[in-house]
Automatic annotation (TrEMBL):
UniProt xrefs under SMART domains: AAA
Keyword terms of this UniProt record: ATP-binding, DNA-binding, Nucleotide-binding, Transcription, Transcription regulation
Keyword Iron-sulfur: no
Presence of the UniProt keyword Coiled coil in the record: no
PAS domain ranges (all copies): 214-266
Protein name: Sigma-54-dependent Fis family transcriptional regulator
Domain spans labelled Sigma-54 factor interaction: 344-574
Length: 649
């Protein structure tokens, strides 16, 4: 045991003339020197009040986690030392006393030197003491009698150990203080053991908090997934679901979690998933809800969950609505209608009548039959009708019935099941009807469809359900049909090559699109529209089209209709070497066409008409050449050339 009188003599020697005894403990020696450097008065009558920014109750609230963890252990310590004159004290990382437990008489004695809750017992405040020195050294320490720098503490022995957070920071100090004559090394051991228990408990709390945070992150992640999620145990009980699943199946989590998966979903495959540890990828099923008997088409993926030993613990099941999956595919593959009525060019009366009929068709959900010669733009009308209908934003799929071999058209339209035929894709494949569910299916060249295929198509239109080739299950579909043909289907019906009942199913709203030769007044509009688009695509700078060229294009009969006009114009723009399209840039076969040659021979006799048109435009624009050129639809450079040609000023 350290000698109290010797320590007192060492202390007096140091405070009077700053002489350090060589027998003084090195840790105490260094602390005394720090105390002097801090300017601590060794004869101060009481400890210092803590300097905090808020009220002490508010400060305690901030330290609630430490207090709630330490208090049970402090009370256990006090039960051991009750009646011995010892205090059990918890301090914060700054040395402020947060909680003091002890005998009434000892508490009264401590109060006399302001060793109370809310006091500051750091080295900076009172010099060497177990609390403050423990904080400075970050280690357990016992300070006895006159080892304390302040004389008011010489009657005490104090044992303290730092409390660390799970990440290693000092967050407090646990201290036991009592009469100096009761000093014992075991006291410090008790404090250290209690601190270890506090730190272990704090570590458990932190792990629990991190688990809660991680759980929150997982909850947020799972609930933001676009797939429905089911986590099921090996015995088939549902452990966890997510918000997306609740939306898909229209059941609350509490209606599913804790139940067996085959009690919630009435599908045979569900009862086998968890027990057999199966892996499934992109399996299409109609999920049957046991509670109400409703079915939802979904794409299911299953992955077994295994423990570190490789034993099955259950399964993770994800479910995607088929409609959402297909919507994504449509967005990625461009299975959408891009054309609207605003994109369809034409102002002729016969053409506007046709557009008005199509607009009326868009207001209904009836089938539409588009007829007209090849190249008239039947596909554009189909897209525009779809985009103006209630099905806009839904799938728009087109299939050319004349371009697909007859033996493959069925699988394209209706799909097929696995092993339906040699080489059939594993898992089968959805046909165009399934993929277009909710939207529009455009059957181009419907007149080329075989009679056998017409029978299958008629059945789908009548029953509004499709059966995959090789399958036995009818799949409901909601699809609007827009068909097109360049044939006279009534004549085909008379010839027996097209079914009459199918014709009437399709011909609910017939729209006949006129050939380009029947609306030649639209040719200039089409030329300007195509030129603008082709300029961008071909990176050209065509600013005007010569009146001679427009005259030639307007007089040609266009057997290939709008498609032929677009093709000719593209080739003409590619050949053009200036900013104006001229007749000499036309493809050679068009320039050698007898009708065009006849027209070219007539052109010199029209010079006077062009001259008068030029004079009239300049007069109407009051000499503004820019405005006159715009009125004539030509570039200013062309206007200047014509002025020079006709000797006009």
């Amino acid at each position: 045991m350290r000698n109290k009188e010797q320590l007192k003599a060492m202390w007096e020697k140091f405070v009077s003339n700053r002489q350090l005894d060589p027998d003084l403990d090195e840790l105490v020696r260094q602390s005394w020197l720090r105390s002097v450097a801090f300017g601590v008065d060794p004869f101060q009558p009481v400890g210092r009040k803590a300097r905090i920014q808020t009220s002490f109750p508010e400060y305690l609230q901030r330290k609630r986690g430490l207090l709630e963890t330490a208090l049970p252990l402090m009370e256990s310590l006090y039960k051991i030392v009750r009646g011995s004159g010892f205090l059990v004290i918890l301090c914060c990382e700054s040395g402020f006393l947060l909680k003091v437990i002890g005998d009434r008489d000892t508490l009264r004695e401590a109060e006399r030197i302001h060793f109370v809750e809310g006091a500051d017992w750091s080295e900076e405040a009172v010099g060497t003491n177990a609390i403050g020195t423990c904080l400075k050294l970050d280690r357990p320490i016992q300070i006895y009698a006159a080892e304390h720098f302040s004389e008011i503490c010489h009657a005490w022995t104090c044992s303290a150990a730092p409390v660390h957070s799970p990440d290693g920071r000092i967050i407090g100090v646990l201290n036991m203080s009592g009469p100096f004559e009761k000093v014992h090394p075991h006291t410090l051991g008790m404090v250290v053991s209690a601190v270890e228990a506090i730190e272990n408990h704090l570590s458990v709390i932190e792990k629990s908090r991190k688990n809660e945070i991680m759980q929150s992150y997982l909850e947020a992640t799972v609930n933001t997934l676009t797939e429905g999620v089911v986590i099921a145990a090996k015995d088939g009980k549902i452990i966890r679901t997510n918000d997306t699943l609740s939306r898909i199946v229209k059941l609350k989590p509490e209606q599913m979690e804790g139940q067996r998966i085959d009690q919630v979903f009435d599908n045979r495959v569900m009862s086998q998933i968890t027990s057999n540890a199966v892996t499934l990828t992109h399996r299409e099923i109609r999920l049957r809800i046991a509670a109400n008997g409703e079915t939802v088409p979904v794409l299911m993926n299953v992955k077994p969950i295994k423990n570190p030993d490789g034993e099955s613990m259950g399964a993770l099941i994800t479910l995607q609505e088929i409609e959402k999956v297909r919507q994504f595919v449509y967005d990625m593959t461009g299975s959408r209608a891009k054309i609207t009525f605003d994109d369809i060019v034409g102002q002729s009366a016969v053409f506007l009548d046709c557009v008005n009929e199509a607009r009326l068709a868009a207001r209904t959900d009836s089938n539409v039959l588009l007829t007209g010669e090849s190249g008239t733009g039947k596909d554009l009308f189909a897209q525009a009708i779809h985009n103006a209908s209630i099905r806009r934003g839904k799938p728009f799929l087109a299939i050319n019935c004349g371009a697909i071999p007859r033996d493959l058209l069925g699988s394209e339209l209706f799909g097929f099941v696995e092993e339906a035929f040699t080489g059939a894709k594993k898992g089968g494949n959805a046909g165009k009807f399934e993929l277009a569910d909710g939207g529009t299916l455009f059957l181009d060249e419907i007149g080329e469809m075989s009679l056998e295929m017409q029978v299958l198509l008629l059945r789908v239109l009548q029953n509004k359900e499709v059966m995959r080739i090789g399958g036995y299950k009818a799949i409901p579909v909601d699809v609007r049909i827009i068909a097109s043909t360049n044939k006279n289907l009534e004549e085909e019906v008379r010839k027996g090559t097209f079914r009459e009942d199918l014709f009437y199913r399709l011909n609910v709203i017939p729209i006949k699109i006129p050939g380009l030769r029947k609306r030649k007044e639209d040719i200039p509009l089409l030329v300007y529209s195509f030129t603008e688009k082709l300029n961008q695509r071909l990176q050209k700078r065509i600013r005007s089209v010569s009146s001679e060229l427009l005259d030639i294009l307007s007089r040609y009969d266009w057997p290939g209709n709008v498609r032929e006009l677009q093709n000719v114009l593209e080739r003409t723009i590619i050949r053009a070497d200036g900013e104006e399209l001229l007749p000499e840039f036309l493809p050679i076969e068009l320039r050698l066409n007898p009708r065009v040659i006849e027209l070219a021979n007539q052109l010199p006799f029209k010079e006077e008409i062009k001259k008068q048109a030029l004079i009239r435009s300049i007069h109407e624009s009051k000499g503004n050449y820019k405005q006159a050129a715009r009125q004539l639809g030509i570039a200013r450079s062309t206007l200047y050339r014509l002025l020079k040609k006709y000797n006009l000023k």
